[in-house]
Structures are given as structure tokens and as C-alpha cells.
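Input chain follows. Return C-alpha cells only.
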Amino acid sequence: MSFASGDQFVGLIRKEQTGTALQDQVTRLFEESREDVYRYLLTLGLYPPQAQEAAQEVFLRLYTTLRKGEEIQNPRAWIFRVAHNLGLKIRARQHSEEPFDAELNPASRNPASQRDMDTPESELLERERMTRFHSAVAGLSDQQRRCLFLRMEGLRYPEIGSALGISPSAVGEFLRRAILRLKKVRDE
């Protein structure tokens, strides 16, 4: 995913004359985490344009918070916590719209995987498998789904817990239950 305005964001931060170490820190975090934050916002049900704007807003908030002199112990967890809260707020505003799901959109699939599905039967089986999987994910509790998506983004249990405001052991339990449920659907 390319952020056309991501370069503008980095440029804006670098234009400031004060706090070059701060600018470098936020720029580095932006470049390392923006796509992960963007994908997480999509999992919350935001449309791509809103997710892109929200991702940039998260890093602007990080910059202003650090510039005020506030200390952030774990910036990656803080970023996902702010993204989570902002994403829920934006989603509440767009509640009448259905969430965008790139996985179910045939146009977004990998062309190489399209070649692997030579027959109509294999296409139907794959579509049914994906529908079952998406239904299983949709059947998870909100906390299970959020923990699962953040874990898929590479966050560790303490970071996920910090982002969602729960303990690392609760994260482990939510993930255990989610994985058991998904395995059960897979094995049916």
C-alpha cells in the first residue's frame, strides 16, 4: 500500500526547525508502522480513505504529544491504542455504511492465485472456504477479533494489552479462544 500523502507527512515533520531528534523519531515510527496501522484500521471496518487519513492523524497526535514533553513508554503500543480509539470513533460516524472487506472483493485478489483456480468447482470451493472463514472471524467476540488482528500485525501480548486496555494474560486467553474457534471451523 502506497501512501501518496505519506511523503507529504514526512516532509511536513522534517520542515520544522526545532526538535530534530523528535522529528526523526516520529518519522521513523511513521515509516515503520504506517502500513500496519492502516491495515488494522481496515480491520475495524473503516473504508480505505478514512483508514489512510486516520493513520496519518495517529502520527500527528504522536508528534504533538511528544512535542508537549509527555513521555511514552512504548510508542508502538501507544500508536495502536490511539489508532484503535480513533478508528472506533470514525467507524461510529460511518455506522450506516457496510465495512469494506478487501478479501471478499474478487478484484483485490492476487492474479497469481486466480491462475491456480482453473475450474469453476475449485473457484466455488475456495469462495465457500473464504466465506466460512470470514463468518468464523465475524463470529468472534470484538476483543478476540481485535487481539487476533493486532497479533497478526506483529504486536506482542503486552503491546496488545496496552493498546486495548487489558492485561497480557487476557490477551493470551482471547487469542487462545479465537484460534480454537477458527480451527474448529477449518476442520469442519
